Each structure stands twice: as C-alpha cells, then as structure tokens.
Amino acid sequence: MYLRITKFVIAPGAEPASSSPCPAVLPSEVTRCQTGAMFEHKAQPDWVAVEEYLSTAVVLPNAALKHAVQSALDAGMPSIEVAPNAGKLLKMLVQLSGARRVLEIGTLAGFSAIWMAQGLPDDGRLVTCEYLPKHAEIARANVDMAGVGHKVDIRIGPALETLAALAEDPERDEPFDFVFIDADKENDSNYLDWAIRLGRPGTVIVMDNVIWEGAILDPSMDEVNAPGIVGALEMMGKDPRLDATAIQTVGSKGWDGFALARVV
Length: 264
Ligand code: SAH
Ligand code: DHB
Ligand code: MG
Hints:
single chain; alpha/beta; seven-stranded mixed β-sheet; 10 strands; globular; disordered N terminus; binds S-adenosyl-L-homocysteine; binds 3,4-dihydroxybenzoic acid; binds magnesium ion
C-alpha cells in the first residue's frame, strides 16, 4: 500500500514513524490510497534539449532558482515543479497584470513561488498552500535564500481547508489578483471556484497540467487525475464568471500545458 498525492508515492516508512496508512496521514477528501502504477510523464530528448537552450539563452533563472530545483532533488521530492520557461511566464504574468496579492495552491520546494514573488513589488504578498510539512520546510528555506521570503506566506494543510480559512480571515484585506493552481488535480474545479471567490473581476488564474499526456481525451489513462482536469476545463468554458484559454506544451515535463483564465 502506498500513499499518493497525484504523483507522490510515499513508501510506507518514508513518513515519520507515527504515520499510519492513508486516512490517518492524508485527509480523505483530497487523496486516495492506491496501489499500482504511477501516471508517467514522458519527455522526448529533443524537447528537453530545446527547453535547456531556451532556459540558458532567454529565461535565465538565477542561482536561487537553480538551488531550489536541486534542493528538491536532494530531498527526494518529485521533479514536478514547473519548467523554467513556464516559471518565467508566471513571473511575467504577475508583472504584466500588476498583481500585488498572489495565491498559489501547491508549493512543493518553492520554485514557482520564487518566480512569482520575483514578479511582485517589494510590498507584494504571496500566500502558498502546501499539504506536506516537509515540502513547506524546504520551500521556506528556498524562498528565504532567494531573498523573497518577506513576501511569502506558506500555509500548511489541505488546501481546501486553508482556502476556506482565508475566506473567513479578517486580515485578508484585499482580494487575490493572481492565482496559480498546481496541486492535486482531483480538486482542480474546487480550486477554480475558490480562486474566483477569493479574487475579483480581472483576477488572473493559471492552472497547470491541463493536458496530462493527452489523458484529458482518454480518462482511462489516469482515472484519478484526468476527470479532475477535464472537469476544470469544462468549467472554464461554461462558467459565466470566467473567460479562458488553454495551451499545450512539450518539454522536460512531457506533453502537458496550462490554462489561463480571467475572472469576468
Ligand atoms: N507549484 C510547484 C509544484 C507543486 S507540486 C512548482 O511549480 O514549483 C504539487 C504540490 O501540491 C506538492 O508539494 C503536494 O504536496 C501539494 N499538494 C497536493 N495535494 C495537496 C492538497 N490537497 N493541499 C495542499 N497541497 C497539496
Ligand atoms: C505532477 C504534478 C504536477 O503539478 C506537475 O506539474 C507535473 C506532474 C504529478 O503529480 O505527476
Ligand atoms: Mg504542476
């Protein structure tokens, strides 16, 4: 038996000794216990070579960003942060939209958080939601090392609970201007709904992983995540509160893509 948050397969014993199988460790509403194969993202070598060229020639991630990726590898975390060119796009979208309040769902080691925080003004704020304390701890060190720690608030817990708490938080004086959704795909539509509720007309929403190796056309490829992604894409098309597009990409993360939505 393995614990699984989308791609995370946490072998029994990898968590603190007090951990017991699934329900005790992970909140039932956001996870499932599964046995069997993980969903694979397949990167072709030429896609990776082109991405590396673009990263070196155009994107220019700084040393702190490179360190964040390495720290995740060293800690045995999955390499599922956004690609550098996608991270730079997030930073530029934050800048171009003039965002001052950013919400992220899914922190991992803080790679995308650092990019987005680099796009914020010095008094801007990014709240990022992470379920696993180990990920949050590594992300904290990484955002601090990157010199953007004063802008970043990492909230540990199941994101649906954190989002509900944010909605009730009297300290949250302003709506979020920009939201990046990148956690458990089963909850993508719930996160989209929260992004709208915590945002305002004009809020920009980016959702990662909306192609999932084409599994959106064949949910039998991944019966856990694909229906969640498809549900969110359908919502983007139908919900009158949103206007949206979706872009497919290839690179080190395989065949995937992102959706871009604007709260109407
Ligand atoms: N945005 C990151 C990558 C996030 S990977 C980057 O590009 O750098 C997804 C993260 O979401 C993982 O760290 C995982 O632990 C977390 N996660 C998964 N399900 C979650 C949930 N229900 N609540 C909060 N975090 C969750
Ligand atoms: C996975 C999750 C992601 O957010 C991502 O960008 C790539 C892969 C995964 O769970 O497999
Ligand atoms: Mg992702």
